[in-house]
């Protein structure tokens, strides 16, 4: 294997694939570059936790770095990577100018995870009880920061087709700067043997407690959807899984109501493959929902909302139902839970979705092809990205002097 190529990943947090979809996404990306022969160093200014992935056992080097500290300059100059992957726009804001200054020839890739500005503005609109509009999104400061970050990079990985459309149609970002890359999963063989309709039981919701849309969805299940569902299905239970669930969710656990708060799932696939139906009444958020991809990958039909399924199924059929109205949501859940033909059809649709839109083999091939193409003609690519050059010039000055000022202040 040729190890002459090197990749530096600047991680916002150390990946926790057992806790978050973002952690799963990062491990998938690392795996693609590793298989292509890159030697990989992962650096982060965050602290590790007991649930952080054991990166070194996967063959990756790790490095603790500090913000607003020129020690990073020496580190990155010595490493001199061929490519740098920024994990979310916040790391590009903090370290992008240093990378551009010390390693001007390194390809700069931004993994947006999902558009954080979109998630933020949707949450704000939801809390104010007003409808989300693209105008509201365009006016927000976080949007301006995230878009500037996309322009400063040579390539940004966009997780959902809806977000790609937003960037190309509304902001008119050139397609050469963007690459649609959903979650990457192994294809499901035709003869895959999952637990059958009769072998499965109960409903499931899974989602990390640090993510506001998940907490809202659990509240919606507890107070609105589950009271109606449990009346219709007196034997069924609802299991709530998620890492870092706040106390208000933990206290919702109620055996009498058959509403069970389980906390962190040791193995997401195991609990998903045993459930009959996944419920995800998401009312705001962005990106692609890891829980719904996991449902498809484990043959578990789901009921979700327009926001939940957004940018996830293209022109194909959903693996279950998409309903925004609570009554219709409950009806759909009852149907999947009680009608084997509807359930089996939904399961098959999930398999088709994974194999068509989320195939690891084809996605990885296209990504590496794009990376090679950009590395070959990097100077021309940057010349064409005039706004990126302009922002690099302006931001470099502003962020650079702010960073140096903070560094001096910290010395004092």
TrEMBL record:
Superkingdom classification of source: Bacteria
A Pfam family annotated for this UniProt entry: Glyco_trans_1_4
Stated name of the protein: Glycosyltransferase involved in cell wall bisynthesis
Phylogenetic placement of the source organism: Bacteria, Pseudomonadati, Bacteroidota, Flavobacteriia, Flavobacteriales
């Amino acid at each position: 294997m040729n190890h002459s190529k090197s990749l530096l990943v600047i991680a916002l947090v150390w990946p926790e694939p057992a806790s978050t979809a973002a952690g799963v996404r990062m491990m998938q990306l690392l795996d693609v570059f590793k298989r292509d022969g890159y030697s990989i160093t992962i650096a982060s200014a965050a602290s590790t936790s007991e649930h952080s992935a054991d990166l070194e056992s996967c063959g990756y080097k790790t490095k603790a770095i500090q913000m607003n500290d020129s020690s990073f300059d020496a580190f990155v100059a010595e490493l001199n990577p061929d490519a740098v992957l920024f994990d979310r726009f916040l790391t590009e804001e903090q370290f992008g100018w240093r990378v551009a200054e010390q390693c001007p020839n390194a390809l700069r890739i931004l993994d947006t995870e999902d558009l954080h500005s979109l998630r933020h503005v949707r949450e704000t609109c939801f809390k104010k009880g007003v409808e989300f509009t693209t105008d509201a999104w365009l006016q927000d400061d976080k949007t301006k920061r995230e878009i500037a970050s996309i322009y400063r990079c040579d390539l940004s990985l966009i997780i959902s087709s809806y977000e790609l459309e937003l960037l190309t149609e509304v902001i008119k970002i050139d397609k050469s700067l963007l690459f649609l890359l959903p979650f990457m999963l192994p294809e499901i063989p035709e003869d895959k043997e999952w637990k059958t309709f009769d072998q499965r039981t109960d409903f499931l919701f899974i989602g990390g407690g640090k993510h506001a849309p998940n907490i809202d969805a659990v509240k919606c299940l507890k107070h609105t959807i589950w009271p109606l569902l449990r009346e219709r299905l007196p034997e069924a239970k609802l299991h709530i899984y998620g890492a870092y669930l706040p106390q208000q969710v933990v206290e919702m656990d109620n055996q009498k109501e058959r509403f069970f708060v389980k906390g962190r799932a040791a193995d997401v696939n195991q609990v998903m493959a045993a459930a009959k139906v996944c419920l995800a009444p998401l009312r705001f958020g962005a990106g692609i929902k890891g829980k719904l991809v996991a449902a498809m990958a484990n043959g578990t039909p789901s009921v979700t909302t327009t926001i939940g399924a957004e940018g996830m199924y293209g022109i194909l059929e959903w693996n279950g139902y998409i309903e925004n109205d609570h009554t219709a949501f409950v009806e759909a859940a009852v149907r999947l839970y009680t009608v084997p033909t509807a359930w089996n059809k939904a399961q098959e649709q999930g398999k088709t979705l994974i194999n068509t839109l989320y195939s690891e083999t084809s996605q990885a091939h296209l990504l590496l092809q794009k990376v090679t193409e950009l590395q070959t003609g990097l100077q021309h690519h940057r010349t064409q990205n005039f706004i990126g050059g302009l922002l690099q010039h302006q931001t470099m000055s502003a962020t650079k002097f702010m960073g140096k000022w903070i560094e001096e202040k910290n010395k004092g």
